[in-house]
Design brief:
Elements (H helix, E strand, L loop, with lengths): L4 E4 L2 E4 H18 L1 H25 L8 H26 L1 H7 L12 H20 L3 H18 L10 H20 L7 H17 L8 H6 L5 H5 L1 H17 L1 H6 L13 H14 L11 H23 L5
Antiparallel strand pairs: 1-2
């Protein structure tokens, strides 16, 4: 078969080679799943700004002149960790993806298995190098987030254990994610970030069950137990909804016991958003190829981002109106 040729700077490149390079680039983009990088990037960025400006107002801390560059560097670090975990998870889940997601880059042979692994480890290393440029609190928390993501996909492979798999995702993305963002400019062990991290973690314990619906049969065939393939979609939704709603209902109690300021009460409204996610989860719609999952999963991610934005806004400006 004869392939046409084009010349670039004196070099001959066949259309076949050109297409191969395009497919490889497309494969790597699909490997990192860009939509899922939005949450760690924007959530961490919001939390950083909240920690910085909250403590500048309440504790009279100075605002560093280069805070914007530091914040973006830290947010990129969190996105890199997520990209690495996405690549590693796809490499580890090749058997499951062949069944439920054959359009992914490894089953489609756009990316080789060893290339995906190398890509993941390279991104983990780059993320760690970025973390070292922030501070020790951030570096240590980022390291623990990496360990959770690695052990989720690789031995002891916590992904295969019922309910533990959801906790194993919720801890790094919820609690540790909030603490990492706050640690960039402030002490991560203040009551406020610990409280908000707990809320995010509990919400994600329930919310992360939305991602398992499209993989239900493939997970069962490959020995992974989830709420969805163990109890069915409707029962899984019933089990998940208290975790998604209750953290917001408890906010008035946290205010009553003076663990958080009264101006954080609008966060209780996210309980309604969580109920909406629960309704979508029960309907179990067709998945979107663009987002690789159902609408309930996408809305769960949107809720988490909006929660971070609202919390940051209240932390920064709430004191001026209380």
């Amino acid at each position: 078969m004869c392939a046409s040729e084009i010349k670039i700077n004196g070099y001959k490149i066949t259309n076949k080679e050109n297409n191969s390079n395009k497919n490889l680039a497309k494969g790597y983009i699909e490997l990192i799943r860009p939509f899922t990088l939005l949450a760690p990037f924007f959530v961490s960025l919001c939390i950083m700004m909240a920690g910085l400006l909250f403590n500048a107002r309440v504790n009279q801390m100075a605002v560093p002149a280069d805070w914007i560059f530091t914040a973006f560097r830290a947010a990129i670090t969190m996105a890199l960790i997520n990209a690495a975990s996405n690549a590693l998870n796809q490499a580890a889940d090749i058997e499951s993806d062949i069944i439920s997601k054959p359009y992914r880059p490894i089953p489609k042979k756009l990316i080789k298995l060893e290339e995906a692994n190398s890509f993941a480890y390279s991104f983990y290393l780059i993320a760690m190098l970025f973390a070292f440029t922030i501070n020790w609190y951030f570096t240590i928390i980022a390291f623990f987030i990496m360990m959770f993501t690695v052990t989720y996909s690789l031995p002891p492979r916590m992904k295969q254990y019922l309910f533990i798999n959801q906790i194993w995702i919720a801890i790094p993305r919820g609690m540790l994610g909030i603490l990492a963002g706050w640690s960039v400019f402030s002490n991560p062990f203040q009551v406020l970030p610990l409280t908000m991290g707990s809320i995010a973690m509990v919400f994600l314990i329930g919310g992360m069950s939305t991602k398992d619906i499209v993989d239900s049969e493939a997970d069962k065939l490959t020995g992974v137990k989830t709420l969805v393939n163990t109890f069915g979609v409707r029962r899984a939704a019933y089990i998940s909804v208290p975790f998604m709603v209750m953290p917001y209902i408890f906010i008035p109690l946290l205010i009553q016991f003076k663990l958080i300021h009264s101006y954080f009460w609008p966060l209780t409204l996210f309980g309604f958003f969580s109920f909406f996610v629960y309704v979508l989860m029960k309907q179990s719609q067709q998945k979107s190829k663009k987002f690789e999952n159902i609408q309930a999963w996408s809305m769960m991610y949107v809720e988490y981002i909006l929660f971070a934005i609202t919390f940051a806004s209240l932390a920064i400006f709430g004191g001026y109106f209380s």
